Amino acid sequence: MSEPTAGPIVLVIDDEVQIRRLLRLTLEANGYRVFEAATGQDGLAEAAQRRPDILVLDLGLPDLDGVTVLERLREWSSVPVLVLSVRDREEDKIAALDRGADDYLTKPFSTGEFLARLRVAQRHARPAADAAVFQSGQLEVDFVARTVRVAGKPVKFTATEYSLLVLFARHAGKVLTHRQILREVWGPDYVEQTHYLRVYLTRLREKIETVPAEPEILITESGVGYRLVVK
Known about the structure:
By secondary structure, the protein is α/β, with parallel strands linked by helices. The protein has two domains: 9-123, Rossmann fold (3-Layer(aba) Sandwich); 133-228, Arc Repressor Mutant, subunit A. The protein is 39% helix and 21% strand. The strands form three sheets. A five-stranded parallel β-sheet has the order 2-1-3-4-5, with helices on both faces. It has a four-stranded antiparallel β-sheet with strand order 6-7-8-9, covered by helices on one side. It has a three-stranded antiparallel β-sheet with strand order 10-12-11. Helix 3 links the parallel strand 3 (54-57) and strand 4 (81-85). The N and C termini lie far apart (46 Å).
């Protein structure tokens, strides 16, 4: 039996074989093309390779918590995500939705409701040119592998440095104000702490610029903020 060549692509990330089998049967019977992953890391890699139209995500994965998968996925992709989980606590639902899930359905579930929620998530999808790897000049950021290369050589970043670089890469070519950056990376309580930015911008430039004192990639927009140049 040949694989269908049309229809939306759904990526299912769930470590339960039985659930994946049920979802595959349900989805393929309704015209979807289905790909599967049993771990968070494999799921992120599949998302980068397959570019699904919608993603179904379990939270209880063996390697990464589903919320972590969401956070990493949202660093580079706006694909609609339907969380499908046995966790039914309000706190779990809020955490998933706050981290970028579009909807949340608890197990056990009816296939009719599942398909309806998929259709809603697809209608609300935001068109975007997602890319798993960002490049500008000598800088290369792989969002899936969470690695950075400069002139082809791997460079290590702290968690905060990496979050800051990802923010700039996601908004490459646009000016980000001091307050925007502080709110996104450090939180709303830090929007006045501009000294944080000065310290971390210096660190970033030391790692990604050929001549840190004369930046060509991460430039200052005087009195406003900073901009990552697209080359």
